[in-house]
Amino acid sequence: MPPLLGAIADDFTGATDLAGILVKHGMRTAQMIGVPRQPPPEELDAIVVALKTRTIAPEEAVAASLAALAWLQEAGCSQFIFKYCSTFDSTKRGNIGPVAEALMNALQTGFTIACPAFPANGRAVFRGYLFAGDVLLNESGMQNHPLTPMTDANLVRVLQNQSARKIGLIRHERVSQGAAEIERAFAEARRQGTGIAIVDAIYDSDLVAIGGACRDLPLVTGGSGLGIGLAANFRAHGLLTKDADAGQLPHIDGLAAVISGSCSLATQRQVAVMKNAAPAFQIDPRRVAEGADVVAEAVEWASTRLSAGPLLIYATADDAEVRSIQQQLGAERAGALVEGALAAIACRLTALGVRRLIVAGGETAGAVVGALGVSGLRIGKEIDPGVPWTTSIDEPPLALALKSGNFGSDDFFLKAWSTLP
Ligand code: ADP
């Protein structure tokens, strides 16, 4: 059976977010890093292609999104979602409007929806106005975002400014009456010439009704919350294997290590806990800058200890230490040196038989995954909110937990070992 849902996400963490939601709602899901060159993994209900198109030029975002769509079509997906941020992050030129319209053209469909709402996470849309928590989007701090300042909470207006097609609105009065009424509202909107309809949603149950109403739409667009509705619709139609545990990953044997390049407060605490429980090796960015072969030192240190259990290699430091290093080396250079060293260490550790890695730090994880040549991840169960175990789809398969910034409890690293796939 080919996958049911193909998702095109405009950034990496957004893709992870959607993939996690789909797994939680019973869909076996993989996340691909960029548009893949190889055929898709098997036995999946959903595939999320993670792009980096949120703030690039609209023409480039369209081209990348169409390439992702073509690959997902080839994979056999029957419904598609263009996933963006629940705060509708976009610039005056796009890229939500241009990408949505290009995907509509490619799929030869004249109607789709735009629904960034995720009520459980504080994102509600009412009368087309997006709320973040208790305030309108343009009072939420998003008006000052450095790349995508959102100065208008009226999504009909925002999307109309980015789109050639007419933007409409499906009000909550219709949404609250359930899927059949929403479908009637879609049909009316179409007759009135609407190409893309903003859909109100203020409760998570609204998302389920909207998902049901979208059953015949080849394309929907929205935030990760919409995934709840789409998964519920597939389940209602008996398309999800009823007793399949969507977060079940293949077991992966091998040595284990934690690599931490995050200096966020939560990570500082997690490193402190882990240092008490396991051998630990600290990377000093100054020595990397001086040209010392810190990678070789770390790997040699690890080689005699790995067989005794998980160990920790970290550059994590407290704020004062990081400031002092940054003053000496420059923030960007220090970051790049540390990321490069940790990524190289990760590769050398896999050569020693490490197959299970926990990586702390968003940028750090990106560098490690890139260096390991990981092209896609099967998404498993959450260790802590927002951080699932994953397994790479490449050879040799690796178990990877990629934890950014402030995620995870203080004993996260230890907890992760007790839930290893
Ligand atoms: P987070 O998810 O917590 O933001 P990231 O990995 O995204 O973590 O970012 C942390 C950045 O800090 C990385 O570029 C990393 O290389 C850098 N870094 C890590 N340790 C140090 C250190 N001791 N001094 C300076 N920079 C560091």
Strand content: 15-25%
Question: Uncertain runs with pLDDT below 50, 5 residues or more?
Answer: none
- Distinct ligands: adenosine-5'-diphosphate
* Terminal residue distance: 25 Å
The overall strand count is: 18
How would a crystallographer describe the biggest sheet?
15 strands, mixed
The level 1 CATH classification of the largest domain is Alpha Beta
Walk me through this protein's architecture:
The chain has 421 residues and is of the alpha/beta class. The chain folds into 2 domains: 232 residues, Putative sugar-binding, N-terminal domain (Rossmann fold); 165 residues, Molybdenum Cofactor Biosythetic Enzyme, Chain A (3-Layer(aba) Sandwich). The protein has 15 helices and 18 strands. The strands form 2 sheets. Strands 9-10-5-11-4-1-3-2-16-17-18-15-12-14-13 form a 15-stranded mixed sheet, with helices on both faces. Helix 12 crosses helix 13. The protein is globular. The mean pLDDT is 95. The structure holds adenosine-5'-diphosphate. Adenosine-5'-diphosphate binds next to helix 12, helix 13 and helix 14.
Q: Which key phrases capture this entry?
A:
Molybdenum Cofactor Biosythetic Enzyme, Chain A; 15 helices; alpha/beta; three-stranded antiparallel beta sheet; 421 residues; binds adenosine-5'-diphosphate
Describe the structure concisely for a colleague:
This protein is α/β, with parallel strands linked by helices and 421 residues long.
